[in-house]
Design brief:
This protein has 288 residues and is α/β, with parallel strands linked by helices. The chain is built from 13 helices and 11 strands. The strands form 2 sheets. Strands 8-7-2-1-10-11 form a 6-stranded mixed β-sheet, with helices on both faces. It has a 5-stranded mixed β-sheet with strand order 6-3-5-4-9. It starts with a strand and ends with a strand.
Length: 288
């Protein structure tokens, strides 16, 4: 069984998509259509913007979404047995599964990104990668702080935490004292935590205004790592995902238990392939 997986924020790079734009008429049409839908020239930022330009959440998220969708269309991998996306990538997975139109998906991603950017401006929060500890240990230490939460369970020994900028240095020191590496991340705020609560209402209103249909194969969602094709539950999970941890390790393990033995990453970079291999070295991976 094969599954398509789609990356999230952090997979962007300078010049992303330019080579595909210049070599494929089909890709060019998608990029131009994206500019029209968004109402601004995102391709100019993708192709010519600086690293800092591409770090902006309201640019990064639609840029990765567009790039991933183009890779899917050109890759011609149709009707996989399952889909999953890391954070933002969940929206790409829903579009490629036929649950959302490309236009609706892109508009939702832009609304999500802007809502998250706005939430970041309301509180001083950040993230850090904790390496070398079991998930349960990271969770237990986070519980000792009022404003530190586990945000991404990426693979064994790699958990990203979110928290206030005031408490994060202290939390990182605690992790270092027990032998972990604690690496501060250059991000706009504390994603997948209570700091994103202000964004939920805006995203909920946007999601409720859009038509979803049943995906053509199960979507394994970040919120509970379970396979799902129920439209109402999919919507609820997308909204709750903003303030809940990404259960990527659990998602991949559940997909493997469900029979998936080939993961195909669609989008910029190969971050997810690396995570899959760290979760289970025996599983095959490819990229488009």
């Amino acid at each position: 069984m094969k599954a398509l997986i789609f990356p999230g924020q952090g997979s962007q790079f300078e010049g992303m998509g330019k080579d595909i734009y210049e070599s494929s008429d089909q890709a060019k049409k998608i990029f131009i259509n994206s500019n029209d839908i968004l109402g601004f020239d995102i391709t100019d930022v993708m192709f010519n913007g600086s690293k800092d330009d591409l770090k902006k959440t309201d640019i990064t998220q639609p840029a990765i979404f567009i790039h991933s969708y183009v890779c899917y269309e050109l890759g011609k991998v149709r009707r996989p047995d399952a889909y999953a996306g890391h954070s933002l990538g969940e929206f790409t997975a829903l579009v490629c599964s036929g649950s959302l139109s490309f236009e609706d998906g892109l508009c939702l991603v832009l609304e999500r990104a802007r809502a998250m950017s706005s939430a970041c401006s309301e509180s001083d929060s950040t993230m850090a990668a904790i390496l070398g500890l079991e998930d349960n240990i990271v969770k237990r230490i986070c519980e000792d702080f009022d404003d530190i939460e586990a945000a991404n369970f990426n693979c064994k020994g790699q958990v990203v935490i979110s928290g206030s900028t005031e408490s994060m240095p202290n939390a990182c020191e605690v992790f270092k004292e027990i032998g972990a590496k604690a690496i501060p991340l250059s991000v706009g705020g504390g994603f997948h935590s209570k700091f994103m609560e202000p964004a939920k209402t805006k995203l909920e209103d946007a999601i409720k205004s859009v038509n979803f249909t049943k995906p053509n194969a199960p979507i394994y969602q970040n919120l509970d790592a379970q396979d799902n094709q129920d439209i109402n539950l999919i919507k609820e999970n997308l909204i709750s995902q903003l303030t809940s941890p990404v259960l990527w390790t659990q998602t991949i393990n559940n997909m493997i238990s469900g029979g998936v033995d080939l993961f195909i990453e669609c989008g910029p970079g190969r971050v997810l392939q690396g995570l899959v291999k760290k979760i289970n070295r025996k599983i095959s991976t490819e990229s488009i």
